[in-house]
Specification:
Blueprint (H helix, E strand, L loop, with lengths): L9 H11 L4 H8 L3 H8 L9 H15 L3 H50 L1 H5 L21 H16 L2 E7 L3 E7 L5 E5 L4 E6 L3 E5 L5 E5 L2 E3 L9 E5 L1
Antiparallel strand pairs: 1-4, 1-6, 2-3, 2-5, 5-8, 6-7
Helix pairs in contact: 1-5, 4-5
Length: 240
């Protein structure tokens, strides 16, 4: 059986066992009490859609038990894939650092070259100009009155920008984990215990994955946000 369902990735390995037993993913969700979107993220090897690794390992073990796969093999493949992703991230950071050094050197060389050119031709610009007998006519500066319509439009635009600022307040009432994506940027993960608080700011939206639906109280610009779900249930929210 192991050879028949052997896949390179942890997600493919588990999905192979599920398909072999002709189980719908909804049936696995009911058996493991894990949300369908989390199981799909596991099968897709989508680390960015999964909670912190400590929780993912328990999800993978429960999934493996439900479909008859080897939990140790599945978790081992997950950890190996996670390690490879971390190594790739570090390589990219080092590569970007080297490119940044090269760019700074080139910019410095360009500035020095520009200064040398400027010094070379300074005498041309400092040469005295012959006096002129022609006196230029005095120019009158005309000031246009402000346009009330334009000023009103600018004021409305400034007010709209002020309204776009979103403030999210998170208060933990039970132990849970939280994964947050602000304005489509990189995800941030938190392990929260009762009375822990978070304050986040954004412009467009917040994407949240909560490990315990009843574990948090959330307020957007001081207005409460409704969270649907039962204790221990993993839920996802997009605010607003």
């Amino acid at each position: 059986m192991e050879s028949e369902t052997n896949q390179d990735s942890f997600g493919g390995y588990l999905k192979g066992y599920r398909m072999k037993r002709e189980l719908a993913i909804q049936a696995v969700a009911e058996k493991t009490k894990i949300a369908v979107h989390c199981l799909m993220a596991i099968e897709d090897n989508a680390h960015d859609r999964l909670p912190p690794p400590a929780y993912v390992k328990s999800f993978i073990q429960a999934y493996a038990d439900a479909v008859g796969a080897n939990a140790d093999v599945a978790v081992g493949r997950y950890l190996s894939d996670l390690e490879q992703r971390e190594h790739a991230k570090h390589r990219n950071l080092r590569r970007r650092g080297k490119l940044g050094v090269v760019r700074r050197i080139m910019m410095t060389a360009g500035v020095i070259f520009s200064i040398l050119i400027l010094l070379r031709y300074t005498n041309l610009f400092m040469a005295p100009m012959p006096p002129s007998n022609n006196t230029a006519p005095e120019r009158k500066t005309l000031y246009e009155p402000s346009n009330p319509g334009v000023e009103a439009t600018r004021n409305r635009g400034a007010a709209a920008e002020a309204r776009e600022k979103l403030k999210l307040q998170v208060i933990a009432v039970e132990k849970t984990w939280l994964k947050v994506i602000v304005d489509g940027q990189n995800a941030r993960s938190y392990d929260l215990k009762p009375e822990d608080r978070l304050e986040l700011e954004g412009t467009h939206n917040f994407n949240l994955m909560i490990g315990n639906a009843t574990g948090l109280r959330i307020f957007l610009n001081e207005r409460p946000v409704k969270i649907f779900g039962s204790s221990g249930q993993v839920v996802s929210l997009k605010i607003p």
